[in-house]
Amino acid sequence: MKHIYKSVFLATGLLSLTACSDFLDQSSPSEMNDKVVFNNEYYTELTLNKVYGGLTQDKTYSQFMPIQAGLNTDCELIDGLGSDAQNTTHQRGVFNYNASPGFADLETVWNNMYGVIEDANLVINGVDNSSLIEEGNESRATMLRFRAEAKTLRAMIYLDLIRLFGDVPYKVEISKSDLSNAYLGKTDRDVIMENLIADLEESIPDLPWAGEQTTEHVTRGYAHGLLANIALTRAGWFIRESAKEGYITATKNSDDNYPTQRCDNETRKKMYELAEKHLSTIINSGKHALTSTPEQYWLDMNVGNLQTSTPENLFEIPMGINKSGELGYTVGFRVNGPTPDYGKKGNSTGTLKLTAPYFYSFDRDDTRRDLTCATYQLENKSSYTEAMLGNAPFGIYCGKWDYRKMAGNPTWLEAVLAGDEKAKICSGINVVKMRYAYVLLMYAEVVNELHKTQTAYGTDLDGKNCTLSAYDALLQVHQRAFTDRNAAATKLNQLIADKGFFEAIVQENAWELAGEGVRKFDLIRWNLLSDKIDEFKSTYEAHIGNDDGTGTKWPQKIYFNYKKNSDKAYKEIDQSSITWYETPADTKAYEANKDSFGKIDTKQKDTNLPSISSGLNTPVKNRYLLPLYSRTISTSNGTLKNSYGYN
């Protein structure tokens, strides 16, 4: 049977297919029918591989989801300031919450995501109807694993669609040739999430743990973690198309017409309890652990080392060098133009930026600060050197992905050196959908919320106590980032004493996960997105200008030296020499200086700052959801429409 991979409600592309003479043809000599495909392990796996392959498209997980979709937050910004932030049909304006239904990427994302769902449905339906899953068949376990992988991937995509668009069409069967299930309206996102939870509960026993299967495939740990994340999303705050009876309406950041609500307290408690069980099960399994240091973790990611023994990653979408993956190219440390070490083009890294308040939020001994915040770039202009960015408070690069580390992968380096000045070389760096650090942070949150104390322990699916308390889990993430781990514990305890345990988790979430497409969706479910963006802006304004004598202002100028014995071909900045926190008494002891974040720049303060996330509360409060593309609506046969004040 010839299958339709995009339903009519998804795209106009299928409408054009209806004019083809073979559109309703039930067989084709060039294709095998379902009975042949799904009664053979090899062919079934090939069909599943198509689902994974769909995740490597630019407008699914190669670029859009990991880089753009998670913007903006209090620490992560789209590269769109001033008038650019008002552009409703370009990413620069869209992710400042100024989207319009004319933003063309919306259609591509929608079509591609639903296309992958259609491919997953094909696998699930095929396995369900295969003789190979009968009791006693030697292929049963393998076929059930294929189905479980497809269901988990489908759940992952639906969760991301919900996060982007709110209520969406929910389709879990293959498209029928008579189009009878093509035009679907929206399903309440809560109904969708409850179905996804049920799918994952069914699938988890059929999935292997990491170590038994590579993390480039869905693992049991990821399915547990995804289920927990869906449960927390189900329990959290969401802007609604209309008020839901029995739901709690937020007292802040809520629109009169499109209220921000969450479920009733009883349902919320059940969701947290569900998350606790699945997160505790991951921890108790011992199948995942934190990498020894953040530096080692990001080195492994940049060079493509796939951890096989208690990996930190629960699932990473496999990309291919020079084929897919824009981590390191579209986001990362900037290589500004041609260089002898990294090719004739350099990279872009222009889409995602970090902020000065975020940089200064780190403890000065936290090793994640300089791994995450690249305050300089490599350029080959008047000299081949690392050059400080200067007073760019909203333009710090995210250094987690870094050409200088990627060069440790000879396959990537060969490709980038062979490219010309126009060639974009895809990095092939895998997109991580969940890592163990995030599991620990979610666990700390749910256990503290349920038991009202940070010293409590969760319970796993077998009724066993978790090996970690809420505090232990948070401490693991925090301590790893410091050389002196005893001092790190003292600093965490002080943070908890000053701000409370939950706020410490919110802060650790930023320090650990910025740039990874995670924070925005947590801030949304906590109903903190607007508040934290306001806080970031007020923090910036409070720390610029002349020193007020209290030490609360950032230095207006920084001083630094270059390394004396660097083994690099370029001048390398001695990062330990930069005077980020005080103006030195003897400025002549430094080789170079640069205007920095504390200096008032009228354009940054009066034009750029107000433009950041300018559409979040105008004209509708808390409108972080995207509209449906205009053509998606016009070709839906009247089943879809926009909401939240989008025209």
TrEMBL record:
Database matches in SUPFAM superfamilies: TPR-like (SSF48452)
Transmembrane feature ranges: none
Gene3D superfamilies named among the record's database cross-references: 1.25.40.390
Major site of localization recorded for this protein: membrane
UniProt keyword list: Cell outer membrane, Membrane, Signal
Domain SusD-like N-terminal: start-end pairs: 22-232
InterPro entries hit by this protein: SusD-like_N (IPR033985), SusD_RagB_dom (IPR012944), TPR-like_helical_dom_sf (IPR011990)
Domain RagB/SusD: 374-646
Any single GO CC term annotated in Swiss-Prot or TrEMBL for this entry: cell outer membrane
A family per Pfam: SusD_RagB
Places the protein is found: Cell outer membrane
Signal peptide, first to last residue: 1-21
Family statement: Belongs to the SusD family.
Name of the protein described by the UniProt record: RagB/SusD family nutrient uptake outer membrane protein
